[in-house]
Specification:
single chain; mainly alpha; disordered N terminus
Length: 101
């Protein structure tokens, strides 16, 4: 008898869960006190950060290009290698933010 009640309870909760709104659905969107959508504000902030990071990425790439052009040897400085790491990290942050959406 307890097994039947447990199964019935589980089935009822599964049915309620199946129809529930998922995160990111417009029905679940939280409204801020200003009346704006929390999701829209988060997306807007992420977009602005992506634009700033992309500008920094361009600047780092230009600096890297200058450093590579002025070196006439096949040996690179540690600073040049660090710059390539910084470029890669920044590009990953941008990509991660874009995939999140």
């Amino acid at each position: 008898m307890a097994a039947v009640i447990g199964t019935a309870t589980w089935m009822a909760s599964a049915q309620r869960g199946a129809g529930a709104a998922r995160p990111g659905d417009p029905q679940q969107d939280v409204q801020l006190p200003s009346g704006k959508s929390q999701r829209d504000e988060i997306l807007k902030a992420e977009r602005e950060q992506n634009i700033k990071d992309a500008a920094q990425l361009v600047e780092l790439a230009q600096q890297l290009q200058v450093e590579l052009e002025k070196n006439d040897r096949f040996v690179f400085s540690i600073a040049t290698l660090k710059k390539t790491d910084d470029i890669e990290k920044l590009a990953r942050k941008i990509r991660s933010r874009m995939r999140h959406n």
